[in-house]
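Hey, quick one: can you model this chain's 3D structure?
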Amino acid sequence: MFFRKIYLSIITLTLLFTACTPAQQQSAPEVLTIMTHDSFAVSESLITQFENENNVKLSFIKSGDTGAALNRAILLQLKGSAPADVFYGVDNTFLSRALENDIFEPYDATLLAQIPASFKLDPLNRAIPIDYGDVCINYDKAYFADKGLPIPQTLEALTEPAYAGLLAVENPATSSPGLAFLLATIAHFGEEAYLDYWQQLVDNQVVVVADWETAYYTNFSASSGRGPQPMVVSYASSPPAELIFAEQSLEEAPTASIIGPQTCFRQIEFVGILKGTPHRALAEKFIDFMLDTAFQEDLPLQMFVFPVNPLAQLPQEFIQAAQIPSQPATINPALIAEKRDIWIRAWTELVLQ
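Sure thing. Here's the predicted structure for all 353 residues.
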């Protein structure tokens, strides 16, 4: 009996030890640091899911707009001080700068096979496409209906007297959509003729402001600012936003986009694994997570961009109000990197003289 009690006690202790061991031996979560621009957003539930499934803690470093964040990442990499494990948010207007400075490690993600080739601008898969958005001219439906004025369908039409003073644009030196619209005009008219086009816009009283917020919320007649211009350079995702954030339920968006051939400029955003990361395996898992449908379907209502994964379903508001141009303007990222400052300087001398 005595030995039986000892035996049972040993069995009990063994079972208790075995039951506790996995929890006791669970290692503390690693920290994966993601550097982003200030506009990055994702649902907390998805972050929690990823953290729990991978025993990791995600740390996000928001570092200004795209250009500022990328410059910071490059400078820290050059100093040998890796700022993070992953960088998200470099777009095709800054892509060549990131690749020339060799800050990313290649990663041939399995889900890249699902992504259309038009989004994959780096053949070495150092920069992996995550989302895209089109910078387009938005217009106030009610204004054009009330005036009986036809909606311009081309860039050339914007120079006609009927549209004098009706377009607000942003300064490309200080605004991302402003730069995108400038690039659209260069793609459409060419380097030799884009300034001639801008001179025609100036002659037709185009209004130039410093940033998107001013253009959309102060100048645009369909926004809360109720401004004087019924056309503004904005995004193809702005009409769905008008539906989502309307104070009262709307049957349709009060705005729409002009999406004729080469009237919009397509911006593609990428993610990359920063060189020297000690968390390479986790970084790969995070990129796989960003390419998968759950994250891709979260993008539109979080950052008002479109998913690159064609299997991702769009929210109803995007289906109802968003217009995706079939022939957006594009320019080789290497040419943008080479000529961006030259183009902006020439534009400034002409338009802001």
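One thing worth noting: Residues 1-24 have pLDDT under 50 and may be disordered.
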